[in-house]
Each structure stands twice: as C-alpha cells, then as structure tokens.
Write a structure and sequence with these properties.
With 370 residues, the protein is of the alpha/beta class. 39% of the residues lie in helices and 17% in strands. It has 14 helices and 17 strands. α8 packs across α12 and α10 packs across α12. The two termini are 23 Å apart. The relative contact order is 0.13.
Length: 370
C-alpha cells in the first residue's frame, strides 16, 4: 500500500503537479505527517508556468522542479493519470530511476477514502455498508439493477480514441452516441439526437448533451452518466433508501477549484460564469463562490442518482448554461470551443457541494481506461 511504502522511506518525491499529485500529497500529509522533498515533472516542456494548463512553481510551500533535480535512488510516487503513467514509468526506468511506485486508480481511491474518512468528509458507499473497497465481486448486480430500474448511460462520440482495452458493459449500462446530429457515423444504437435533445450543441457541451437527453427522455428508478473511457463503479446491491446520489470522490485542487478551472478556460468565460450564477441564483451566489474558492472538485460529470434528483440537477444546470449561451456574442469561446464542458464540471461540483446537507451523497471508485 502507498502509505506503507512512504513510511519506509527516509525521503520521497511526488511525480506530478496537478490534482492527483496534490490529492496524494494532502492525504499522505494528513495521515502520516510526511511531506515530499519536492514535486517533479518529467519534461522541460512541462516546466512551471502561469496560464492555460500550466504548472505552479510552488505547491503548498514545496517546490515543483524538473525530474533532473531528483536523486536517482530517491523514492518517487508517480501520481498522474494512468494514461500519462504509460509514458512516465518507462521514462523513469530508462533514465536510471529505480525506486518508484505508480499510484493506480484503485490505490488512489483507497488512499483518498482513508483521508476523507479521517477528516469526516465524502463517505464512500462501501464504508456505509461496512465493506472493503473491493470491486471484483458484483454478485447479483444485474438482477438487483432490474429491481431498482437502474440505467447507466455510457457516453460515446464518433471522435473517440481507440482504447487498448474496453470496459465490459453490464446489462444496465447503455452506450449512447453524444453529438449524433453532427456525424453520419453510427457508433451506437442509442443516440442523443432523438426526442427532446441538444445534440447539435455537442461541440460546446460534450457529454452533457447526453445528460440532457437522459433528463428529458428517460424516466426510471435510478439513472446516471459515465463515459466510454471512464466508468463509475456503482454496485446496485448497495443502493438503498438511505442513498440519493453516487459520485466519484472529489479531487483536491491547489490553491482552489477556481484556479483549476482557470487552467482550461479564459478569463472572459470565468466572468461569464460569475454573471450567470449571480443572475440566475442571486440568493445562493455567495455560497457558490465559497465552493469555487474551496479546494474540492467533482470531475468528469459522472453522476448516478435517483430519477428526481438527476432531473433537478439537470434543470438547475441547464438554466445556468442556457443563460451563458445568451452571452456568446461577447464571449466567442462559449460558442466556438468546448468551454461549456469545463463549465459543466464546475457546475456539477457547485450543485452537489451546496446541496450536500439536503442530499444523501456517497462515493465510489471511478475506473479510467486507456
């Protein structure tokens, strides 16, 4: 386990300088009191820089530096996505680093679950049921899903990358082609350009055109959204009356979610979001700002919820983005880029963070395929 390995080391570094790395750092510090000597990045192109997608020079008082600064025998925790790990692990080995450990998706989930349990935040569904974080035995999942009337929609698009391994879909998981109105290529039987839909806006909204379709066209017991390369590991047998929503564990952003948001959109998009939030929900605006200036962020817009909860979330969400669309004449990125898909993650986070007292929210592991 990660914590056991850290405790064996006299010193260590964390490879990575974004949310996975900062989350691992925060959990390790909180659970063991240990801090890394530094954060490292692996190429000079990834040197610290301000602006879109840049890394900070210092994270919580700890320097971010190039891998060359790291002694060859120092223990390195590789805390980046598994897609990046495919490049990083051979790079480290080829360059003479011998003492490193990759933070797998499962290890990350267990580490963050322990940390959040320690601070009394973001409980997992497994902990609620007194189970281990073991996703190997799905038992009678499909039969129970039928009883619950659970439907998870796996969002696909004609531009999707080819995966080295594809997830096995269970009976209650339905592929849906998002942006079907924008392509003659048919990749799934179910498409988001039927019924009440915004399929033509897929370039702006990405997976949220599928969320809109599910909101407007599907009524069932439970429903949710996952992605062709990101799945939410919801075990149906754990869904009972004491649960309203299931989400992936939030990432921890440094110095804030708002800063993380600014890595992907320009300032005029951020200002447009503030304007929309204040116009549509003036009474809640200050609470929304507290979330934006806080450290936590639900990502990927993956949600599984009771039918009415999912619908209310979507109603709230699309009212705000609809208002933002009225500003696209002054903010071309809203019309011409996928800025609204980044806005979507922020809004998903705001909604469930500010409604955490009224909703019974629990968390499960996400699985990312490369």
């Amino acid at each position: 386990m990660v914590l056991d390995e850290i405790q064996k080391q006299d010193s260590f570094a964390i490879y990575g300088a974004q949310v996975i790395a900062f989350g691992a750092y925060t959990a390790i510090k909180g659970l063991t009191g240990r801090k890394p000597d530094f954060f490292v990045v692996g190429s000079r192109d990834a040197k610290p820089q301000e602006g879109l997608n840049g890394n900070l020079e210092v994270i919580d008082g700890i320097e971010v530096c190039h891998i060359d600064a790291c002694p060859k025998d120092m223990f390195i925790l590789v805390a980046v996505t598994e897609l990046v790990q495919k490049e990083v692990l051979p790079f480290l080995k080829d360059n003479g680093y011998t003492n490193f450990l990759a933070l797998t998706q499962y290890e990350e989930h267990v580490l963050m679950s322990k940390y959040y349990e320690n601070i009394g935040r973001f409980p997992t569904l497994e902990t609620l049921r007194g189970l281990s974080h073991d996703y190997s035995d799905w038992g009678k999942a499909e039969a129970i899903a039928r009883e619950l009337d659970l439907r998870m929609y796996e969002v696909c698009n004609h531009r999707d990358s080819v995966l080295s391994s594809k997830p096995f879909l269970k009976e209650y998981e339905y592929p849906i082609q998002a942006g079907a109105a924008l392509s003659d290529k048919e990749i799934t039987e179910l498409k988001d350009n039927t019924g009440d839909n915004i399929s033509l806006k897929n370039r702006q909204y990405c997976e949220m055109t599928a969320s809109y379709w599910v909101w407007k066209n599907i009524k069932c017991g439970w429903k949710g959204i996952e992605h062709y390369r990101r799945h939410l590991l919801v075990r149906p047998e754990l869904l009972r009356n004491d649960v309203d929503v299931v989400l992936p564990l939030p990432y921890i952003c440094y110095p804030s979610e708002l800063y993380q948001f600014g890595r992907f959109v320009r300032e005029d998009v951020r200002k447009a979001l503030f304007t929309a939030l204040k116009h549509v929900h003036p009474d809640e605006y200050d609470d929304y700002l507290k979330v934006l200036n806080g450290p936590y962020q639900y990502t990927y817009n993956m949600v599984c919820a009771r039918n009415d909860v999912f619908d209310e979330y979507c109603r709230w969400f699309f009212e705000i983005t609809g208002y933002m669309e009225t500003m696209q004449g002054d903010v071309p990125d809203i019309r011409d880029t996928r800025a609204l898909s980044y806005v979507a993650e922020v809004l998903t986070n705001i909604y469930f963070m500010t409604n955490s007292a009224g909703l019974k929210i629990y968390h499960v592991q996400k699985e990312i395929y490369v």
